[in-house]
Amino acid sequence: MYVVVIGGGTVGFYLTRELLAAGHEVVIIEEDPHRAREIADELGSIVVANDGCEGRYQGEAGMARADVVAAVTGDDAVNLAACQVAKMRFNVPRAIARVNNPKHEHLFRQLAIDETISPTRTILGVIEHGIPVHDLLHLTELEGGELQIVEAHLTDDSPVIGKELREVDLPTGTTLAVLIRDEHAIPTRPETRLRTGDRLLAVTSGEHEDELRGLLIGE
Amino acid sequence: MKVMIIGCGRVGALTAAELDRRGEKVTVVDDDARAFGRLPTTFGGVTVRGTGTDEDVLRGAGAELSDVLMALTEGDNRNALAAQLGKHTFGIPRVIAKINDPLRAQAYRSLGLETICRTSMLSDALVTAAIEGAGATEFVEEPTAEPLRGGPAHDSPAHQEARGAIQAEEEDA
After folding, report:
1. Contacts of residue B85 in chain A, CB cutoff 8 Å?
2. Which of A72, A85, A202, A213 is at a distance of 20 to 30 A from B112, taking alpha carbons?
3. Is A88–B110 a contact, with Cβ atoms under 8 angstroms apart?
4. What number is the ipTM of this complex?
């Protein structure tokens, strides 16, 4: 695969090194000439020392035949601009942006960035999984953020403890996907009775999330 | 009309001050509080210290109720991000981004943003001024006095007059 990496910070550098090691063809664009030289010393002459948001330098980096562009600087505005230029001028099939402010994820997807990676959200997810929370956990988004897979951890306070699944009146458009009990995934049957410690994975939409939270976790 | 201006540099401050003078409701956002010093003391709008590309900052500053958003910082990328947040996240009816790279400005216009490009404006005005004279454009300003001609500058009547005025002032002091 031919990959153009925008940004030669720590993420860009190691990403490029790993991609090269995996046998991909890579060019990296780094604006700071000093940093660009450092990368070239380590990885060879695969560095374009210029502004990765400018069409001219993307062209120099061979963007026209790139399969993937990965914009991974620490600045969301740069990552968005670089991906938009790559998509609009060079029709790159896959644009991946690092998103530092997790709130930008939705906007980036709306603006035709194919994939977004948010280290902040990932770390947040890991932390939230490590401590007990009285809220729905967001596991992932589907359909460009319209649908979410969420997890509810049932405690003694949950209004649904002791109820059978058929008695649980789910909000519109919400489906229970799986029940995790004692580290086993069990299918959700109407007669399954809910217990403390159960974890329910549900697919829901943003507008029904509050209702689902109230139903499974309580106020 | 409610106008939100991102970036209180020279352009942002001047635009904010003029809109405020004309009675519009202006909010200016800048991440450096010192930048608000560029606003005149008579400025009656709101200043918000914060990052203009942060959704929460813009919401707090009233983006949802704005009729116009203008992204006027020194960074093309930041302006493009702020403008697209305004358009897509907050549904602001009109957004204008200052984009100094003409090629990129063209690309953003195709994405539905209004752009203003200093480079194109200046070069258009200068080309017109070169061919048709300064009077043909309202942006290139005519000199306010005749240029000094003949003899060394300090002997010219205008210079003598200016020197006389300075001396009179010194004697007064």
Report:
1. 107
2. A72
3. yes
4. 0.70
